[in-house]
Amino acid sequence: MSTTGAIGAPKGAGPSPGGTPPPSVAAADTTVTMPLSTTATGCEAGASTPGTTEAATTPEWPSLASMERAGSGPVWMFAVAPAVTVMGRIVAPFINVMATRILADYNAVVAALRASGHDDAVPRFNAAWEELGSTPDGRAVIAVCSAAAEGGVLLGRVAFTSTAAYPWLEKKLATYYAGKEFLPVLLAAMRYYKAQTASGAAPPTTPCTAPEWPSVAALTPVDDIPDVPVGWNFAVAPAVVAVKRLAEPFLPELRELDTLPSFHRIVKMMQAMELDADVPKFQAAWEELGSTPDGRAVIAVSGAAAGGVLMGWAGMHKLAANPHLEAKMTKYFEGKDFLPVLLATARYYHAQTLQLSHAATAAAGGGSGGGVGGDAVAGGSGGSK
What we know:
Blueprint: H1 23-26, H2 53-57, H3 75-91, H4 106-115, H5 122-132, H6 136-150, H7 158-164, H8 169-176, H9 183-198, H10 232-247, H11 254-257, H12 263-272, H13 279-289, H14 293-305, H15 314-320, H16 325-333, H17 339-364
């Protein structure tokens, strides 16, 4: 994949986690006037971030010119992920960064806002950008984003946002870049990322939680997958199949590509396949899944399963379709706090199966049966909305 056509992409941009943007924004004009009051000190010469002559001559951060660029290995992602995630969070209130291919660059963001008809958001983004550039750590974020944009990195990529959240990332950077003059810049961007996360300014990492259900943390298998507890596959099968059915309309080649049954893993695959334009539709489907107690149970259990099973495993379908599924669950997990959560996923799975059957019958007869996740699976006797 490449950033060719991505908003703000430099001519001849090479390989990156990017790709071709939706047609409505592919030809956006990226020439804009940037607020000079935002000093991006420490940015490299020629970077397309705001700055002043004084700031350019007395940078507070060392140059990132000697840092490896995209394609040099996974450590590149470690280095830029926190800063790119920060910028993505700042831009997210104005445009869906997960669904639009925008370089981590001020010009590119303004161009995307204008191309998508959000001209009124430009002044608000400018104010947020100026606030970012008002502190040394914020200016470090701008500097790292400039380097990331030169390497073709896009905003809102799950591969980067999930990397930024790794608890060992700061130690990894300190070890790999020990002795490098630009290490303080990366650590400053990491500090800003952590402060932003702690402040609550960051959106939830996974949409839709299950507050009415007991925790399923004890359901998570041990690290050695062959030694998973007896009955674990029965426990997670209905939720895994339900999430797979939800994802299939958006990932036609899911069986061949496969992925883990989690919101972010599915979006990550969609972005990798340059299906960004469909991300909002999948987000809406996921939010609908999380709108009922039984749907939230599916999200909770599929999250536990995401550490040990791929959606494409045919065995999940066989287990979920077992006529004695609930009895199996009760046998293996009787007395466990999370048993009601498992039974709720079985209810959702059965309702979803019935809806799909009705939809297939209606389609064969020329009628309309609705999509996966509609009224037929809107129940949820296990809790309250």
